[in-house]
Amino acid sequence: MSKFKLQPMKEVKIFVQGEQLNHVTNLLDAVKTPGYTIVPTISDKGNHGVHVSNPMTNELENTVMLLTVVPEEQLEPIIAGIAPIFEKHAGAIFVFDTTVVKRDSGK
Q1: Residue 56 class from Cβ within 10 Å (0-12 exposed, 13-18 middle, 19+ buried)?
Q2: Domain CATH number, residue 96
Q3: The pTM is what?
């Protein structure tokens, strides 16, 4: 018997301005995501033009990326909680099908 199993999940990449970071992390914690990674100072180009982040400036002004991997049932509450940010601020959410290798607990 294999010690590992494959589990289908959703990979979620969230791009927001640094000033929105606490809102997003609070939401991810409230939804009980298993964890997330924050990548600060992202430079990007989108509908709002080019944004070049600078690690020497105020982190609230820079674009940040949050990455999490969640079961599908957590996806809708995450999107619903973040969508209102995009009414006033630039940002994006990307969702991908992915598979996570987990240790088989034998259950």
Answers
A1: exposed
A2: 3.30.70.120
A3: 0.80
Chain segment 34-70, per-residue pLDDT in tens: 899 998 876 666 666 666 655 556 566 678 899 999 9
* DSSP letters for 26-90: HHHHHTT-S--EEEEEE-EEETTEEE---TTS-GGGSEEEEEEEE-GGGHHHHHHHHGGGGGTS-
In three-state secondary structure terms, 98 is: strand
Amino acid at site 21: L
Mean of pLDDT values over 81-102 = 92
Domain of residue 86 covers 17-102
